[in-house]
Amino acid sequence: MSSPQMYVASTTAPVNIAVIKYWGKCDTKLNLPTNSSLSVTLSQSDLRTHTTAACSPTFTENRLYLNNEPQDVSGARQQACFRELKALRKKLEDADPALPKLSEHNVHIVSENNFPTAAGLASSAAGFAALVRAIADLYELPDSPTDLSRIARQGSGSACRSLFGGYVAWEMGAAADGSDSLAVQVAEASHWPTMRAAILVVSAAKKGVSSTSGMQATVATSELFEHRAKHVVPKRMAAMKKAVLERDFESFAALTMADSNQFHAVCLDTMPPIFYLNDVSRASIRVVEEINRVAGRAVAAYTFDAGPNCVVYYEEANEALVLGALRRYTAGVAGWEAQEVAASVPEGFDVHVGESLREGVGRVILTSVGGGPVKTGESLIDAQGLPRALSK
Ligand SMILES: Nc1ncnc2c1ncn2[C@@H]1O[C@H](COP(=O)(O)OP(=O)(O)OP(=O)(O)O)[C@@H](O)[C@H]1O
Ligand SMILES: C[C@@](O)(CCOP(=O)(O)OP(=O)(O)O)CC(=O)O
């Protein structure tokens, strides 16, 4: 139970995996990107952040506990989120003196990710989206997810897209103050209900080069990057929106794979080069290419963020072929338990292409496209404003 002076709100928020990648900033303080991007929000039944925000006049500082460990909140990213949300609350309080002065209190955040943090599974996206949504709910802000995306963006660029479900564009904008660099929904998850995603978790370890530092090294040193941002991505954004709206999987797949490959090409074109893909990632690419070859068309699409994990998008109708092939190489790993699909490939499938998958994949996550943040009554904070899990 919360003490009379404590206000509490809780939410869950999803991970998103981009199919047109954000890579590069023109303003590192405001997280303004050098190109627009587009992502797919994954179902919170499988991957989610759960965050509770609380405020009270008894709190002496802003605090954040992630998976029950206290975190440093003095960084510019967390500070920007706290400051901007408090400013919005202050506006409401100025307009309505009857409202409690929550903007004058410090905030405690308790958050749990049900998947590995900082391992290339977009924890910062789900994490900052949940933080912003939970505080916005705590403050009863009337602002839309697009309005809030301007704030989440300052926590982590990709987080702005996790305020929506389905298919989400982050429009880069042109204003120097970032006011038009925001997320908008392209389509709800229900628009394309047959879309699925399989994640081959190659490494759940912390990655070597963070997205934040990697992308700035690319901006500073890669010539290829400039071509990508100026000439390639704008056309791809338009084509990807069309593919999503028309549920055209072949175009969606071609664009997704080309964009992942180009993102990793600009990483390789960075000085010193950045290698996020490893032999296991490359074997996953070959297996997907082989699936598509035997199918005679693109029925599966791979994409990789700043790490070796492979995300494969496919449609439900092709589940037997796509998952059958992936399972053939990874049958013993966690994640297949609930799946009926047989570990088999059709005649003519060159099974040698994926041998390295056998050793390198530690877990599979089978999921689908899902909705945006969801309010929940399940609080992670105890009456003292500390993680409930620690007071048990
Ligand atoms: N639930 C959360 N609440 C608040 N902040 C979080 C949460 N989860 C992660 N973060 C922040 O995000 C950081 C991890 O971000 P990072 O970009 O390194 O990894 P990632 O998002 O898992 O990988 P990628 O962005 O490449 O997919 C954490 O160190 C923490 O600061
Ligand atoms: C490869 C990516 O996943 C990069 C994500 O970068 P972040 O959003 O983690 O970077 P910061 O804005 O510095 O926090 C591509 C994408 O999600 O679009």
TrEMBL record:
<dbReference type="GO" id="GO:0005524">
    <property type="term" value="F:ATP binding"/>
</dbReference>
<dbReference type="GO" id="GO:0005829">
    <property type="term" value="C:cytosol"/>
</dbReference>
<keyword id="KW-0444">Lipid biosynthesis</keyword>
<dbReference type="InterPro" id="IPR020568">
    <property type="entry name" value="Ribosomal_Su5_D2-typ_SF"/>
</dbReference>
<dbReference type="Pfam" id="PF22700">
    <property type="entry name" value="MVD-like_N"/>
</dbReference>
<keyword id="KW-1207">Sterol metabolism</keyword>
<dbReference type="InterPro" id="IPR036554">
    <property type="entry name" value="GHMP_kinase_C_sf"/>
</dbReference>
<dbReference type="InterPro" id="IPR029765">
    <property type="entry name" value="Mev_diP_decarb"/>
</dbReference>
<dbReference type="GO" id="GO:0019287">
    <property type="term" value="P:isopentenyl diphosphate biosynthetic process, mevalonate pathway"/>
</dbReference>
<comment type="similarity">
    <text>Belongs to the diphosphomevalonate decarboxylase family.</text>
</comment>
<comment type="pathway">
    <text>Isoprenoid biosynthesis; isopentenyl diphosphate biosynthesis via mevalonate pathway; isopentenyl diphosphate from (R)-mevalonate: step 3/3.</text>
</comment>
<keyword id="KW-0547">Nucleotide-binding</keyword>
<keyword id="KW-0752">Steroid biosynthesis</keyword>
<keyword id="KW-0443">Lipid metabolism</keyword>
<feature type="domain" description="Diphosphomevalonate decarboxylase-like N-terminal">
    <location>
        <begin position="13"/>
        <end position="183"/>
    </location>
</feature>
<keyword id="KW-0456">Lyase</keyword>
<dbReference type="Pfam" id="PF18376">
    <property type="entry name" value="MDD_C"/>
</dbReference>
<keyword id="KW-0753">Steroid metabolism</keyword>
<dbReference type="InterPro" id="IPR041431">
    <property type="entry name" value="Mvd1_C"/>
</dbReference>
<feature type="domain" description="Mvd1 C-terminal">
    <location>
        <begin position="198"/>
        <end position="374"/>
    </location>
</feature>
<keyword id="KW-0756">Sterol biosynthesis</keyword>
<dbReference type="InterPro" id="IPR005935">
    <property type="entry name" value="Mev_decarb"/>
</dbReference>
<keyword id="KW-0067">ATP-binding</keyword>
<dbReference type="InterPro" id="IPR053859">
    <property type="entry name" value="MVD-like_N"/>
</dbReference>
<dbReference type="GO" id="GO:0004163">
    <property type="term" value="F:diphosphomevalonate decarboxylase activity"/>
</dbReference>
<dbReference type="InterPro" id="IPR014721">
    <property type="entry name" value="Ribsml_uS5_D2-typ_fold_subgr"/>
</dbReference>
<protein>
    <recommendedName>
        <fullName>Diphosphomevalonate decarboxylase</fullName>
        <ecNumber>4.1.1.33</ecNumber>
    </recommendedName>
</protein>
<dbReference type="GO" id="GO:0016126">
    <property type="term" value="P:sterol biosynthetic process"/>
</dbReference>
